[in-house]
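Figure 2 data, in text form.
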Amino acid sequence: MKEQTAVQFIGEYAANRRYHQLSELTITRARQVMLDHFGVTLGGIQTELGRRAADYAAQMHPGDDATIIGDGRRSSLEGATWANAVTGKAMGMDDSHRGAGHVASELVPVALALGEAYQLSGEQIITALAVGYDVMEMIQVAVDVWQRERGHDHKGQAGTMASAVTAAVAMGLPAEQISHAIALSMDMACGTEQYVYDAGTCDTKDLLAAYGAQNGIASAKMAEFGFRGPPGALDGEYGYFHAFGPGYDPAFLDRLDGEALARTGFKPHAGCRHVHSCVDATQALLQSGQPDLDRITSIEIDAYHEAITPSFRVNYEPETVGQASFSLPVTAAVILTRGRWFSDDIATYDEPLQQRLRHLAKVGLDEEIQAQHPAKNGCEVRIITDDGQLYRGRVEHAKGEPENMLTDAEFEGKFRHMAGDILPEAQVAELLDGIGRLEQLDDVGELVRLSVPQKVAV
């Protein structure tokens, strides 16, 4: 018998995965991912980009399949998925998986749109998300180094294929059609990270997640219609791992262990995930003692290689808030002056005191932290004042990593901060309760309906 191709193997794996096989931690993470995604999406719909995305989806993708979260208008499956992915990314605070990057903004919009349209249960949605995370991690870990060197973006690349699997599992497709959904989506995978250099002057950072989510839905639908993708889409001579990575190794498939969702992390702060350990280390420094900001003579920031390169991560003269959100010198300066790292804090990056402080910063590689990466994503910040006082803060794991997870209160606090007052309190309470019992829901469309602002009864 001919050996299975990679997409056939994944198709069999995905088709046979069942809710009862998932670990308790995976199920817990699914609830947390859902809560986190609803929060950042409700925040994102209140931005100019989010409103534009909703308008675009409603006008360019008319339909009555699914709801644009926080907006209430209806659209096609692809349109609602696209809009909800953009708004889920717009705040820059979606989840952050150590190996797979930002995953929820591609997969959750897919699961929710299909869940609403097909009246899927919480168990079905959790299973589809878990399999999608497994595939996202498996593919992205294999190609990450090569893609980073070439400037490819994981959200539109691996995210497209993981979205296709999530959609196909949610739709209940058999193994063969799941395989074709992955294969078809491979040729839709797209995106570069040029936006990190042009941050603040383009929208593609957030649109890439939407491309991945939308193309994932389209691929699963095409597979259901009988369209076929290349069997060697991943492992063939011109397949994905050859074209976008180091070449194919059958060992890649061994990573499908069912626990990728359990390994995801969350962003308690705004901006790039790689600056978050600097945020935490600087906050830890401030907790141990408050230096006189006017007397600071040097700031030293040491982290792992991926956090300090390329050059946009050590940008002393950002021209936009977007560029500032990637810069370690800016991060330390903002935390020293503001104490937090939300969007409104980052927007103050060019105030005179912050300008002075960021130019005092020197960024370097900590060999011990580097040796522990990616298992740990630590940072150390040291400050010296003109009287010789030394202040030091160090973290091993950024807040929100599996080893340093947010508490339930912190998850709810982030949700409320992101959502603001878009929903009345009674509706917030219902939505939080529904998400908290996600696996018990018969129809996840209940959550989507609760995300639409309603007039308070009088």
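Caption note: Residues 273-399 form a domain with the 60s Ribosomal Protein L30; Chain: A; fold (CATH 3.30.1330.120).
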